[in-house]
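Notes to self after the Tuesday call (sharing in case useful).
The group wants a holo model before anyone commits to mutagenesis around the pocket. I volunteered. Ligand is uridine-diphosphate-N-acetylglucosamine. Logging inputs and output together so the record is complete.
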Amino acid sequence: MDKFLIRGGKPLNGTVEISGAKNSALPCLAATLLTAETVTLHNVPYVKDLITQRRLLEDLGATVLTPELHTQKVSAANIEIFEAPYELVKTMRASVLALGPLLGRFGQAKVSLPGGCAIGTRPIDLHLKAFEQLGAIVSLEAGNVVARAPKGRLIGAETFFEKVSVTGTENVMMAAVLAKGKTTIHNAAREPEIEDLAELLNKMGAEITGAGTSKIEIEGVESLGEAEHTIIPDRIETATFIVAAAITGGELTIENCQPKHLTAVIEKLRETNVEIIETDESTLLVRCPGKNLRSKDVTTEPHPAFPTDMQAQYMTLMTQAEGASTIVETIFENRFMHASELVRLGADIQISGNTAVVRGKSNLMGAPVQASDLRASASLVLAALAAEGETLIDRVYHIDRGYERIVRKLGKLGASIERITDNMSNGAEQTTS
Ligand code: UD1
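Result:
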């Protein structure tokens, strides 16, 4: 398994370009299953999860061309299989995003039930309930979710999410675009990725209004056609680089981002004393002179509030702030696994249920640590950049799922970071420092 060796204590300086949003590219690629015509997506990040999603499309019978590294042209004209197998779903839970489009276009879908994962049980009951409201018959057969639309087509309906679900909202949106009649999604997720998906679907000929609000209305259409779309920038990668600048006392220009998708994070980080200037609508200048960080409490909540996907990175930052901060995680159970690794590096963190209390400022010292999930690995990289001495991070395949060429990007900014690859010929990016 690949590892990162990081020698901390160097301020990051320079310019970094943000990649496309993983969490938008995943549903947008799934949406290509809704038409027999070609859909072209630009700014698709080159990360492991997208490679897995591409494999899923190909396994179903789609043709995926990559004329350029970040462009994917998908033709789902010859779909013969309607099933996402366990091998793929177990490595990437977002494979469940195939359910909605397959059910919507072909009236049938089978997806292996995602098991428990590192950050909690993560059920898909709300997705399934909404499909049933659209007339689907859903059953569980040998660990698979099997869904069918009687007479081959779903029927538009009022659907209500008891709990806000991002992929749930996306799945139902994709199922409903080809349903007969009108669907309303109440208590829909409002993440920018939902808006991006709706924009793509509308370009394909769907009739969706209200995406980005908690009430989405969808007039079903008979068929969808070709489209070309550019994926929005990754707001979590952007915010991770903001923290990287702050925690190392450096100065970064962050290009190709969308600060308007990060209002809650930017506000919170400004409260902690990080200087963040919006140079223009897609560029940020970040600096943290003297590293005099203030402790501030935070609670994760659905968008537009502070995202759970930034909780781990924020916790690392708070280890470097003066005083105590309380971090409450309301979205996922079991999402504090990075805390014990941060403690190994010298942090003072106490966990009780869904609340973490971080007492700073701690002198972090390099040590061997282990990544447990995607955002946890980002938090460990940040801690290692701020720590004295060498940190060896194991299981970095987690970070490869969602951060494009992180070693190269950080190395260019002055970080001392190398990937230690078991088999160098398989390394997605070679040693950089
Ligand atoms: C998406 C993001 C993930 C992010 C999360 C929350 C993608 C590919 N992933 O995950 O990065 O951390 O949103 O912003 O976009 N729930 C149920 N039943 C369901 C569905 C969800 O109980 O059927 C619960 C979950 O366990 C969790 C909460 O609802 O407690 C929110 O989960 P959800 O928004 O669905 O997360 P994902 O879409 O899986």
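Two things stood out.
The pocket of uridine-diphosphate-N-acetylglucosamine is lined by residues 23, 26, 94, 120, 122-127, 163, 165-168, 307-309, 331-332 (CB under 6 Å).
Residues 424-433 have pLDDT under 50 and may be disordered.
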